[in-house]
Task: inverse folding
């Protein structure tokens, strides 16, 4: 049994929305999926399949990689952009915006409809298998031994062996529905939410909305980021909690975090300001979690996705000062935005993907 060191931070909160379901991502790199599912777990009180979302996420990334390989057939292998793609064709990492986009397209299914597999516990073998096959596939495409369509069929077969086959229908309230209808009948519409960020820098103006798609006619609304000041983010997060909804956040738990104690508090002053830490890649939104509690003395209850490895109850207690320093994004229902911020979403400014987080 894990020994929990005594904590100096109280674990009692004035707002506590935790539904009682803990999840454990183990070593699969899917924190963004588990955390993004937290509001669904809160409302439905049921565990959902991460393998289902992971399957479509991997297929989307594979398709994008193969598209680039085809488009860049004439480029030399020493080309920096092509080299970067071949170094890591795909990975398991993501953010809420990608989860939302996948769910809007493919829906959700309960865990029992597409259960955990060995690949749910550890991403290494799956990623190694896919990346190895994709690099060989890149050689085949560049030497006209195969094509994108053929490769996609083969990758689909690999994913089904590792993750299971996505179901076409699931049982819901005594009837059979599609995964997309299952999502819609959950009562949560992901289009009602937006990612708000705090990235203090000369490049990110505040308040301002950004999107990584340059052509306004092809912009994915989930890729819109609303840049605001940290005090605004805190007010929006608290408003959402007060209205009974958990809040998905992106943060850097590598900094001043203690998982065994379940604490996120400043124990050592940062060497760099938040602006410099972001610019020099010292911090980023490397972990996605969900806030499900708050106390007026400046503490926040944060649900992690590592089971009881995090504190005595699967949660961090996050202090206000840590929130300021290391939280970079939060997913907020648009209804809680003041009119001025809401209007900014209509005219986002182009921001390249590599500069997003």
Result:
């Amino acid at each position: 049994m894990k020994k929990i060191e005594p904590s100096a931070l109280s674990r009692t909160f004035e707002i506590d929305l935790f539904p009682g379901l803990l999840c454990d991502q183990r070593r699969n790199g899917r924190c963004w999926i588990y955390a993004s599912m937290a509001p669904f777990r809160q409302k439905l009180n049921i565990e959902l399949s991460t393998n289902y979302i992971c399957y479509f996420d991997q297929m989307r990334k594979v398709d994008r990689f193969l598209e680039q390989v085809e488009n860049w057939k004439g480029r030399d292998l020493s080309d920096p952009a092509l080299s970067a793609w071949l170094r890591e064709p795909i990975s398991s990492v993501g953010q809420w915006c990608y989860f939302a986009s996948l769910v809007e397209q493919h829906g959700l299914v309960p865990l029992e409809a597409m259960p955990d597999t060995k690949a749910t516990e550890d991403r290494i073998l799956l990623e190694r298998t896919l990346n190895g096959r994709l690099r060989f596939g890149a050689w085949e495409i560049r030497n006209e031994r195969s094509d994108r369509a053929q490769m996609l069929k083969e990758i689909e077969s690999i994913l089904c062996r590792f993750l299971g086959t996505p179901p076409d229908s699931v049982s819901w309230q005594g009837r059979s529905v599609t995964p997309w209808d299952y999502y819609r009948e959950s009562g949560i519409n992901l289009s009602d939410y937006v990612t708000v960020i705090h990235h203090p820098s000369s490049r990110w103006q505040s308040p301002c909305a950004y999107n990584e798609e340059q052509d306004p006619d092809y912009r994915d609304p989930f890729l819109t980021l609303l840049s605001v000041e940290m005090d605004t983010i805190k007010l929006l997060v608290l408003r959402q909690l007060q209205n009974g909804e958990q809040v998905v956040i992106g943060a850097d738990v590598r900094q001043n975090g203690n998982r065994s104690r379940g604490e996120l508090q400043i124990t050592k002053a940062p060497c760099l300001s938040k602006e410099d830490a972001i610019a020099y890649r010292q911090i980023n939104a490397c972990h996605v979690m969900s806030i499900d509690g708050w106390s007026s003395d400046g503490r926040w209850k944060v649900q992690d996705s590592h089971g009881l490895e995090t504190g005595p109850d699967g949660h961090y207690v996050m202090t206000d000062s840590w929130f300021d320093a290391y939280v970079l994004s939060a997913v907020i229902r648009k209804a809680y935005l003041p009119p001025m911020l809401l209007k900014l979403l209509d005219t986002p400014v182009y921001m390249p993907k590599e500069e997003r987080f």
